[in-house]
Structure formats: C-alpha cells, structure tokens
Specification:
Elements (H helix, E strand, L loop, with lengths): L1 H29 L3 E7 L12 E7 L8 H18 L3 E3 L3 E2 H9 L3 H9 L1 E5 L3 H9 L7 H21 L4 H18 L7 H13 L6 H18 L8 H51 L10 H10 L7 H17 L3 H6 L2 H23 L2 H4 L10
Parallel strand pairs: 2-3, 2-4
Antiparallel strand pairs: 1-2, 1-5
Helix pairs in contact: 1-2, 6-7, 6-10, 7-8, 7-9, 7-10, 8-9, 10-11, 10-12, 10-14, 12-14
C-alpha cells in the first residue's frame, strides 16, 4: 500500500510538472487574457496508451470580445504548445469567461466535473472560489439544465439516426447525459463517466426503477468511448453502429419514462402537501379568531367570510385555494393524464403563493396579538 501511494504521488507530481511547463509557455503569449489553467480528471496513471492529462483553460472575453476567428487561432496556438510540451496532454477547447459562467449558472455536468476535480496551476482568483462554492453546495442543480440535457439527448439521437454515421461518441454522450439528468432529478450530483455505471446501479437499478440491462449498456458504451479515445478501436461496422443506435434510443426513451414518472410523483406530492398546509392555515387562523366552525367542511367558506372579505389578506389566496382543491381532486382520483399535462411551474407557483399567504396572514393576525395572545408560526409547504 505504501509503495502504491508513493507511485501515485509520483504520477501526480509528473502530471503537475507537465501542466506547469505547458502553463508557463501559454502565459508567455496569452497572459493578458488567460483567467485560469487547470488539470482535471480522475486518471490514476500516465500510460503510453494515449493522452490522459486533461487540461482546462478559461479566456477573458470581458475586456475585449473574442471573435470566432481569434478563438480558433488561440486554440490552434495552444494545441501546438501542448504538442511541444508532451504528447500526453489533452487540451480541452478553451472556454470564454462568459461561456464558463453561463455553464456554471446551470450546473452543467461537464463544468461540474471540471470544477469538482480541477487543480489550478494558474488562477487569477476565480476558479478556487467557484470550486469552494461547489463543495459547499452553493451551486444548485438546475431544473432547466435537466430538461436541456434530456432535450439535447433526443435531438442528437435524431441526428445520428438520419445521418447513419459512425457516431458512437454521440451515443455515449446522450446516454451519459440522460443518466445524469435523471440522477439530478433525484438530487444526486451528476457523476463523472468513471462512476456513472456505479451510480446507475445504486440509484436506479437497486431501487427497482431500471432494469440492470440498461446499466450494462451504459457501462459498455463508456468502455467503447474510452477505447476510441485511446485508439484501441479504429473502425466499426455499420451493423455495430445500428445496434448501438437502437440501444441508445431505447436507453434515452427509458430515461424519458423515468423522468416523467419522477416529475409526476413530485407534482402529486407538492399538491397534496400544499393542500394540507393551506387547510391547516385556514383552520388555525379561524381558531385564533374564535371563528372555527364545528363542521370542518365549512372551514373554507368561513375563512373567506372572516379573513378574505374583511380584507385581512388578498382575495387571490382564495383563488389559490380553489385551484388547489381542483388539483387535489385530480390526485385523489388518480387522474394521471391531467396531472401529466399540468405544467410543473404552475405547481411550484401555487406552493409559493401559499408561502406568501402564510406570511401575510401571520402579519395580519399579529395586529390583533394583544387580544388573541401569541401567534404561532405556520409550517411552510414542502
């Protein structure tokens, strides 16, 4: 174990030396626009099989806009510098600062893994703080990014089907992205490719959400992608591509089904919870006003008469209640089709409206605190 640890440290030291030499050369020419240069990835060894030192670069486009031609020239220069330093360097296409922050904002899985595993060898002061924010959980997983990955997977499958080209890497991308999208919906951080299979087993197969066959397909396509990367596969048959096109399409469709099921269940849970919280708020408010009826079915009507019509809070909150009542009925009747058609944003909006209502009612009742006694806090909907 001690020998293995020392060997690993020597490998890491060699990597850093190579990247540092590369960084020094790049900075000689582009110091004014380079914001950071970082080593990233999870490779344990430096082998002769191919390039395995991944390098990430961010260029400042805020002081001066970089045209596509300028970016292409800079990338070409940087690639030449990398080839001069070491054949083991794999230089990722440089990100502009604007593009980097745009990807950070939606927590792109690619940027997530770069930030998570990155070791800056040159940093003007922004990569390390972003990395700290990520480690502290301050960069949230974005629902917009989830849908973006799913839609991107679908479009890329369509392109591959039409073109009938050897796009095995495309199949790898769409299967990995679709997997990461579903895992993100489960509040699981998107795993790097090296851990995607294990995550699929742990969070999708073991809970019974997905058959093991799909996880094995994911494992196989990752292995194929690595063999392509290290030139262990130089050509494939059209039949092989067609087989993987079919598998990739089935895989993405499976992820769509999982995503739809997860969103459906989430909407149901939010509706039920928000309805129950709203009803308790009505009941509690009337109890504090000594207006609570014996018949529970009359609680909404009395709430409207005693609180809404007396302008203690906005009348729109009773509209929210009516909407929640209708949605709760759909849930109780297991009306799957109508719930699926319901925009997720609408459900979230209703939940936020109830949270505002809780705050507004509490403020209104505090004005009567001397005669009513201490006002208790309401639980916000989950």
């Amino acid at each position: 174990m001690e020998t293995s640890s020392k060997a690993s440290e020597e490998v890491e030291k060699e990597k850093l030396e190579i990247v540092k030499a590369f960084s020094d050369k790049v900075l000689e020419k582009y110091r004014d626009i380079v914001k950071c240069i970082a080593l990233f990835g999870e490779h344990e060894v430096i082998s002769d099989a191919g390039r395995d030192i991944d390098v990430f670069i961010v260029l400042d486009d805020t002081k001066k806009t970089l045209s596509e031609e300028e970016l292409a020239k800079i990338q070409d220069d940087i690639d030449k510098i990398g080839e001069e330093i070491s054949s083991k360097l794999s230089i990722q296409p440089p990100y502009s600062l604007t593009e980097f922050w745009s990807e950070v904002r939606v927590c792109s899985p690619i940027i997530y893994n770069i930030i998570k595993t990155g070791k800056p060898v040159y940093d003007t002061g922004f990569f390390s703080p972003v990395q700290r924010l990520l480690n502290l959980g301050k960069i949230p997983l974005s629902r917009e990014q989830i849908f973006s990955l799913i839609e991107d997977a679908s479009m890329r499958i369509a392109r591959a089907k039409e073109a009938k080209l050897v796009f095995l890497i495309e199949f790898y991308d769409v299967m990995l992205n679709a997997t990461q999208a579903v895992l993100m919906w489960l509040n699981v951080p998107p795993p790097p490719p090296s851990k995607a299979y294990n995550y699929a087993i742990e969070y999708l197969v073991k809970p019974g959400m997905m058959e093991r066959e799909y996880a094995e397909w994911l494992k196989n396509i990752i292995e194929i992608r690595n063999k392509i990367k290290y030139k262990e596969i130089s050509s494939v048959s059209g039949q092989f591509v067609d087989e993987w096109l079919e598998k990739a399409e089935k895989y993405v469709n499976k992820m769509y089904i999982l995503h739809s099921a997860l969103e459906h269940q989430t909407k149901r849970n939010i509706i039920k919870n928000t309805y129950e919280v709203t009803r308790k708020v009505f009941e509690h408010s009337l109890k504090l006003l000594n207006k609570l009826p014996e018949n529970e079915d009359k609680i909404p009507e009395i709430f409207r008469n005693e609180i809404i019509e007396k302008k203690m809070v906005s009348s729109r909150y009773f509209d929210v209640w009516n909407e929640l009542t209708n949605l709760k009925k759909l849930v109780d009747e297991e009306n799957i089709e109508e719930i699926d058609l319901l925009p997720y944003e609408k459900v979230l909006h209703l939940r936020e409206e109830v949270r505002r209502m809780i705050s507004d009612i509490a403020k209104a009742l505090r004005k009567k605190e001397e005669e009513l006694g201490k006002i208790e806090e309401y639980p916000a909907p989950k």
